[in-house]
Design a protein that fits this description.
By secondary structure, the protein is of the alpha/beta class. The protein has helices spanning 36-42, 92-95, 136-139, 145-158, 173-184, 198-206, 235-242, 281-294, 308-317, and strands spanning 24-34, 58-66, 78-81, 84-86, 106-107, 119-123, 128-129, 165-169, 188-193, 211-214, 223-228, 243-251, 272-275, 300-304, 323-327. It folds into 2 domains: 24-132 and 298-327, Medium-chain alcohol dehydrogenases, catalytic domain (Quinone Oxidoreductase, Chain A, domain 1), CATH 3.90.180.10; 146-275, Rossmann fold (3-Layer(aba) Sandwich).
């Protein structure tokens, strides 16, 4: 499914299977999650995609071809391919252990072809061994919603002491995964949804949220930290008002509408606003090792590959709980 121009439907296209180059692998795609970032690529919110592009960066697949110089991965092995698809390795950020901020990166489904396809090629160094436990569809959302969710949770809680109370604004793919991890860690989760979205609030309570309400509501007690997965800038001042002194608000999306003006008093008393950018391979290793211990259950809605446009439309309209997953 190929995007040739932003804001146009993806086109079903027949291509020869891609061939892996040196240091690359090819996988037969078993499942690929549909992420809000894919929506931002398709809708033209993210600038300068490599066009034409095959979206999709929550890929679960089995290796069926290996390029020269690949070590540590084998034919037939199940792997996950995430958003971060390549880094330069030489810029100050890469050398300093912050490869998520690389000056010359490649991103799966944005600047290199992704997983809305039957086969995909990836840099072998950026593929995560998954083992054979867990259903392919259930695992796929962990490759971005889970990984970015994990990085945002670490950033939120490290910056707010013990962070016993955590607010989650936007309870979709990432939110419903992070809520389970936070509950496993012993935190109390407060879920914020679109005003009046009773179904999603009930969904959050079923996953153990201590409270669920509209994003226009104040929580019943101050939050230690808040994470914003909804790409709505107007939520930032609301989240600042909801966190206690010294609290942290983490903006976890790659794209967000403009943040409106707000009084300095809402930021004062050492409250913080920070953003999350991409992920590191260590984030992936840490989270994928933790996920089986948590016992994460992903809520998924599956679509055939040819129905990718329908999946994107349903995500845009909020017509399902949890995550959408394409199955070739």
């Amino acid at each position: 499914m190929v995007l040739s121009r932003p804001r146009e439907p993806l086109a079903w296209t027949e291509r020869p299977d891609p061939l892996p180059g040196p240091g690359e692998i090819r996988v037969q795609v078993l499942a690929c999650g549909v992420c809000r970032t894919d929506l931002h690529v398709v809708d033209g919110d993210l600038p300068h995609p490599r066009l034409p592009i095959v979206p999709g960066h929550e890929i679960v697949g089995r290796i069926d071809a290996v390029g020269a110089g690949v070590a540590g991965l084998e034919m037939g092995q199940r792997v996950g391919i995430p958003w971060l698809g390549h880094t330069c390795g030489v810029c100050p950020y890469c050398v300093g252990g912050r490869e998520n901020l690389c000056d010359d990166p490649l991103f799966t489904g944005y600047t290199r072809d992704g997983g809305f396809a039957t086969a995909a090629v990836a840099d072998a160094r950026f593929a995560f061994p998954l083992g054979d436990n867990g259903d392919d569809v259930a695992v796929a959302p962990l490759l971005c919603a889970g990984l970015i969710g994990w990085r945002s949770l670490v950033m939120a809680t490290e910056g707010a002491g013990e962070a016993e109370t955590l607010g989650i604004y936007g309870f979709g793919a990432a939110g419903h995964i992070v809520a389970q991890v936070a509950r496993w860690q012993g935190r109390r989760v407060f879920a914020f949804t679109s005003p009046g979205d009773v179904a999603t609030q009930d969904f959050a309570r079923r996953l153990g949220a201590a409270w669920a309400g509209g994003s226009d509501e104040a929580p019943p007690e101050p939050l230690d930290a808040a994470i914003l997965y909804a790409p709505v800038g107007a939520l930032v001042p609301l989240a600042l008002k909801a966190v206690r002194k010294g609290g942290r608000v983490v903006c976890a999306g790659i794209h967000m509408s403009d943040i409106p003006r707000f009084p300095y008093a809402d930021l004062w008393e050492e409250r913080q606003i920070v953003s999350v950018a991409n992920l590191t391979r260590q984030d992936g290793l840490d989270f994928l090792a933790l996920a089986p211990k948590v016992g994460i259950v992903t809520e998924t809605t599956t679509y055939a590959l040819k129905d990718a446009n329908e999946a994107l439309a349903d995500l845009r309209a909020g017509r399902f709980e949890g995550a959408a997953v394409l199955v070739p």
